[in-house]
Structures are given as C-alpha cells and as structure tokens.
Amino acid sequence: MRGLSRDKYIIAGAITLGIFLLGLFLGLAIEGKRVNYIESISRKQNLDFSSLQLQYAFIDQLSQEKNCLAVQKTFEQNINNLESTRIRLENFDRDATLNKNEFDILKNEYILAQIRYWLLAQRTKKLCGADIVNILYFFSDQKECPECDKQAFVLTYLKKKFKDKLLIFSFDSKFDAEPMIPLLQKTYNITKYPTIVIEGNQKNGFNDKATILREICGYYKEKTEDCLQISLKK
User: Fold this and answer.
1) Region of 203 on the Ramachandran plot (φ > 0 left; ψ -120 to 50 alpha; else beta)
2) Please, what sign has the CA dihedral across residues 37, 42, 45, 50?
C-alpha cells in the first residue's frame, strides 16, 4: 500500500510538473510572438515616417503646398497606427512577466516614434495649416501620481471624441532609459504628475474634461459639437 501511495505522489508530481512546463513554454511562445509583432509594427512606422519626411522635403523644395492634402491623409493614417501600437504596448506591459529587456527596447522605440510624430505634427500645422491640437501627457506610477489613471481616462475619452484632430503623446517619467524624457521635462518644467502640455501651455495636476475642452477648443478653426456646447456654457 505504501508503494502504491508513493507511486501516486510521483505520478501526481510528474503531471503537475508537466502542466507547469507546458504553461511556461506556451507563455514564452505567446510573448515571443507579441514582441515580434510589435517590432514589425515599429519597423513599418519607421518606413512610413521616412516617407513622410521625403514628402515634406519635396514640399519645402518646390513650395508646392497643394500636396498637403495627401501628406495630411498619410500622416493621419500613421498616427492611427501609432495609437494602435500604444494600446498593444499597454496590454503587453500589463501582462508581461518575461522578456523585460525586449519590452524596454520596444517602449524606447515607441517613445522616440511619438516624439518624431509630434514634431511632424507641428510641421504639418505650420506648412499646411492642419486643424489639429497636440497634447503632451506626462505621468508617473500610482505611488507618485494617484490621479494619473483618472487623467488617462479623460484623455482617452477626448481622443475618441476628436479622433485625428486631437493628438495625444504620453511619456512615462519613470522610464529613464530614454534621455529625451528628462529633456522634455526640463523644457516644460515638469515637476509634478499628472501634467499635460496643450500646444505649449502647461497645466499641472489633474484636469477634468471640461477644463481640457475649453483649452483645446480655442485652437480649432472648425468647431466640433463639443466645442460649440462649451462655448454656450461660458
């Protein structure tokens, strides 16, 4: 009986170990595919950005601003791709327990892509008079910034409302692997979180939907329904 009992424990242990190893290998496979997918998106974004740079160089050289419509359309499409990658990165960050180095590299590339698109958006407005508003959003962890999640929720809501007309670029203050983040923080004198910078105007602390709406609506040439409602409430 003792031998039979011991065999049961051995079999149960082997089954448990097998299930654990299967889960581990499955997790590694899924996470590896996730990294490869985001890397592929990142490479595509870099190619798209290079294309946009060439288009703008062409406009600068020939002063043919009639090409702006095509450039803006391409730019808006790539901004949407950037937003999709942001969501995937957030999901990856929430679920990932392995490949920390790979994730940090991808996050670094994403931050640089955001900065490139932000600079390009500034140029789009200058060359083509694009009716867009840029927001830089600086956040930190829950301990340092208990209201950051609430601020992110408000910004996500406004992004869904304004879509391509509102560009939001988010920067994690705790990610010190990229020197551009402290440089941006120093440029805009970011000392507390959350902080948003709307078209160069800094607003510290949590800002509710109405406050941000009043600010961004002042920059739009074509007023949306939300902006018209804010105007009526003044």
Assistant:
1) beta
2) negative
Closest CA to 92 of 75, 109, 113, 115: 109
Return d(Cα 17, Cα 15) in angstroms, integer: 5
Pair 51, 67: CB distance under 8 Å: no
Query: Which pair of tokens denotes residue 213?
Result: 């709406």
Coil, strand or helix at 226 = helix
Q: How far apart are CA 134 and CA 9, in angstroms?
A: 62
Helix or strand holding residue 167 (H, E)? strand 166-172
Helix (H, G, I), strand (E, B) or coil at 134: strand
Q: How far apart are CA 8 and CA 191, in angstroms?
A: 61
Looking at residue 194, what DSSP letter applies? S
pTM, entire model: 0.69
What tens digit of pLDDT does each residue of 28-84 get?
A: 555 565 556 566 666 666 666 666 566 556 555 544 555 666 666 666 666 666 666
DSSP H helical segments within the chain, as ranges? 2-62, 68-95, 100-128, 148-162, 180-187, 209-217, 225-233
* Whole-angstrom distance, CA of residue 205 vs CA of residue 218: 21
Asked if residues 76 and 125 have their Cβ atoms less than 8 Å apart, the reply is no
What pLDDT digit, counting tens, does each position of 168-188 carry? 999 999 887 788 999 999 999
